[in-house]
Amino acid sequence: MKSIIKNIVWLRLAQLKINDYYKLGYFKIPIHLALGHETIAVCVNKIMNKNDHILLSHRNIHYNMMATKKIKLELNEFLLKKNGLANGKLGSMNLSNKDKNIEYSSSILGNNLPVACGVTLGKKIKKTKGITIVVTGDGAIEEGSFYESLLFAKSLNLPLIFLVENNEWSLGTSIKERRCPIDLSKLSKSLGMYYSCLEGNDPYKYIIELNKIKKQSIKNNCPSIIEVKLKTLGYWIKQDEDNPHGRFINYHAGPARELKENDFPLIEKSLYDPIFVIKKYVSKEVLIDLTKNIQKEINREML
Amino acid sequence: MKLVNHINELIKIKINENKNIVLFGQNINAGSCLSGLTKGLDVKKNNIIINTQNSENSLVGMGFGLMLQNVSSIFFMKQLDFLLLSIDQLVNTYNIVRANRIKASFTIFPVTVDSGFEGPQSSLNNLDDFCSIAGVDGYSMSNYFDSQSIVDKHLIRNGFRIITAGQKDLNKDFIKIKPIKEDHNGNFFQYKIGSLVTILCFNQSISYGLEFTNRITEKGFSSSLFSINSHSIFDYSEIIKDIEKTKQVIIIDDTKSRNKTSTNFINSMLDKKIIKKHFYINRLFSIETLYPCKDNLNIDYEKYIIDLIAE
Question: What's the CATH number for B181-310?
């Protein structure tokens, strides 16, 4: 249990450290923070084995950081340094890590979905028994490549999980503003695929469900859709002459301006904040101690 | 024998020399098998054939995904214009995949719709545009020997490329004129050597070049004839050497693109200031190309030849 909680806190603090650098204007490249996405990244990392592969989207910092647990590697990559995770050649939006089975990341919405089909087919041909997970979002499922890839994965009986991080936002527009609702449970049912919805950021429930879907998909050579309902935290209210009543800003890329490192890295008192949720498993005092220790660890690494 | 049957035989031979190749595309093993192009493919040596759904964007992405797993594949496509749906994958995915050390082959083999009777679709009658957008290697085939060489060299080798043949030529009996010289990479083929003029045929224009050489021979002169099969920039020095001797050039390019490979060649040639006279026979996009019609270049051969002889 401890390692899961510790990883969630580490991932929050590591991102806040990156955010501090971001606010200071150190990065030339766009970075998409995933504050609020920590639980799903930690849980996916937990269920992955050596024969499992993952393909990511432009918002991939949480999966990449969990795979290495090295903030400096990631930071140096964002600074395009030679001692970065990919020798400063991939930056953020396309950052992958073959050594950790992160096969591919794409900066283009929906682009990684068909590539994941090919990776899974390749594994099947080579008789590699494992799951492939492709991470996408509520914006990318509007792309034709999502539907095409679902068809392909089902037609070829591929053990592939389409993991949809649904944060409601695509750039500056919410789902309500831009389209009709998409019922992924009905869509998956119509194609004969498994569907599961994760919500509430409880890591232990997530791990049980992820493992269940993974086993089903592998055993029956059947793709699945897992929809994760979450919030990308760190938004702020812009108030100026043009917006006297304040305007909600859900940053797409860029820093979470109003957040900073804290003794207790809670952002929002709701089930959308993984830090808030883990309080039911450990006391606030234990979390504060854990935070202090991890902060020390991170600071040591940064030296 | 039609060119399509010849290329089909070459493909089968090449595939059977290799193993664990994924062959995929729409109707490649059903119906007319892309008008015979993929007829009789078999699954020896663990090769896999997939008659796929109609999702060109995803199918190209899938080919790159297979490459990431070091699995080789060929995507056969009925029409080149279908590849327009895949441009994101051709640019963005390929640019990431090519940076990796990939030990697999991925070839896309579309048929260029160039007969003209398809109307709007045949305004896209070349690989130049596709190859240009992401520096993709591309090769066109138009006769017995160049198809033999290009299929052998490029159909299955590490990396990614696009290979095509024109619909117009595929359904005719093949031209069997043996090259006297060919580039080791299949970028160009030289069929004749002569002194009056160097004739360079880009895209699917070799038949026009042959007509020129025949008419020049009838008049008691000789010409050099090259076909340029690559749609990428390559080392032109062998061709330039020939032009240094003849000092006169006819360039024929039947593409409707505004982004022709031949213009790259002309620029490099003009820089060298070795030409006394050159003719550039090509066409620009026009509204007529949108309507179904016989899609040939109209060339006044005699006018050009008289002009060259006068020089």
Answer: 3.40.50.920
